[in-house]
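Appendix B, record 7
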Amino acid sequence: MSELFDAVDALVASRSPLPPPEERKRLRIAHGLTLEEVAAALKVRRATVSGWESVRKPTEPRGPEREAYARLLKQLAELYPAAPEEVVRAPDVPLQNAATGAAHAQVPAPQVPAPQAPAAPGPEVASAPEDPRSGTAAARPARTTGPTTSASRRPGARKAAPAGAPAGGADPRFENGPLAVVGVEDGKVLAYCTGGLVLDVPARSLPSLVEWTLKEARLGQPRLSRPGRDADPLLVLTGAALERYGLPAVLTEEERLAGRLPEGHTAVRQLTRAEWRLTQRGLGPWARIYRPANGSERACVQLCIPSWQALDPRHWGEAGQLPPAELARVLGVYASRVMTPRGSTAVTGLELMTALHPPTRASEPDAEGRRRSEHNPGSLGKDPVDLMNWPPCEVPDGHPVLTDLPRFHVRGPGEKLFEEAYDWARPMTDAECTLRHLVGIDVNMAFAAGANGLSVGLGEATHLKAPAFDPKLPGSWLVDLSHVDLSRVKVGKERVELDGSLLPSPFTPKGDRPEGPAWYATPTVAYAVELGYGVAPLEAYVRYENSRYLDGWYQRLRDAYLATMADLGVGADLAPADFLAAMDGCKDRDPELAIVTAAIKATVKGGLGKLRERPRGEGWRPGEPWRALTRPTWRPDIRAAVISRTRINLHRKIVKHAAFTGQYPIAILSDCVVYAAGGPSPLDFLPYREGKPLPGGFKLGVNPGLVKYEGSQSVLWGEEVRDRFDAPELNLARYIKDGTVTDADSGE
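Structure tokens (predicted):
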């Protein structure tokens, strides 16, 4: 009989009523539990518990998890019965600086103990939560929900950061993290910070919000290099916050095209009256509000407005639609591992270069003990290259240095440095058509890997006639490489015979064999020598002042990517089969961290693209300067060198693979390569032996420069697509991921 009773109890429990998502979240927070702790206890993923608490798209637990979850909530409800929200305040007392004890603002202090702030996004504010870096309680504005008895705090609880969230540094100036997402809940303005912290915001206007941020919020990020400067605090304004501070929810079409609100807008006038200034980009999606620096003291706050398209969905996915706490987590992880966003991912990628190599530094003290600003060695300096001193071959069409060219003149490879990523394909051979699958592999962070260890020029170029080639000297070389025959090349120390007709040329993005002298960056010419062929440059523009300027940039972005992928369950030391299994569905394990990985990769590509930024409207006409030319970081030569090295790195692996296996690529698009294979997995054609890859060839793994699985389709699919568009050389690498072909290959 007892077994029947147990079965009945289990049946009833399987349909146990659950409180609404808001109440589930309140109960968890009241007891100081994190999402991770609940997930671990119930043996589910953190994202699963978050879904159970989601107000927008709640999910319901099933099976034994529902029974256990209902039991947890029932016990918590007995401890913390639902009650109207109550804010417990005491008379105003000075807020003490954690480091000096100096009072700098008047804020309410909690009268009685309140729940400890949990780690997961979305908590309410706990009074005086324990600082995760020092283990001491930091006084701050407090807002509590639920009962405020001693039973609502677990003794000795710490505010632990969620998986993938930054813990922050020990600098007390920035104890609340680099940024906050400002939202409105129950009529009260709240600032959602990293690590699950939420602050009350007393500001009633945009100018007072800026003042509060600088004086009380303790937001910001320490400098990334000694001569650099600390990152300004970043405020992300939600739609509700925009309404509260008198800003439009979306920009009009005219404002969107202008990239800002008009100067006559009420919010802009408010800032002006309060003696705040805006940069040239005005009050737009990424706004910078400041007062002129007083010595080394900066007074500057940056705004990010997602509903004004500040977070491009191509790079940030659905980040702009996340609730405030979740958005704070995404941007906080990115800020802690890369840097506080300064604009788009492209802008941030470029700013990261400068943050790691500031243009100036303080000199040694003189006889009177005074220091002066001086050039920081290894940086690009504070002044751009003189417009008319640019080598004509390195600049894009329309540059002022090209004004003497005839109108509508099209420069060929003998006049223009054209180092770009691959876009190459060829028809399949009969033997390849007998195989069943086309498999794509993709190089992880290929352009970051191309930047690693690369010497690039820092100063202006020196023009040489008929120079001897020096592979260690960054520059652009006019040289004829048409004599390089891919049918017979050196691989290592040996010459090997290959089918050159099945290989792309390493010297052109389209894979065509050069037909005469052309301009190349140093890595391209050096590769011709590596393949066993002599070179005789006709002229060159070289840079004797050079360094491995991008090494620190690469290392920070690499570490950010690897740490975030590790949080997604993809480690750096996995065996090939384990790596493929870990990559399968890794984005679904934590969609928020998946957004971060996409943003990191976009930071790499966008930052390098910014090195040769073209005119962006501005009423520009060919031959006139454009705004980007005034930056020291406008360096098309550095961009060309990175792309050259990235393309050469890929070609070297292709040649090594062909020499060892007799397999040749079908198509290449940037960092994706497609091979015909007998099975749908990369392991069906990559020559692993006892778990070890071909030395110098393709290797599966998460590190930059290693490869991952991109996708596979059938050989019949490939032939059908090419027949449909009557394009025997349609680049199948463009569509290998999901097989969707919307139009013929445009080559763009």
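Remarks on this record: The chain has a mean pLDDT of 86. The two ends are 73 Å apart (CA to CA).
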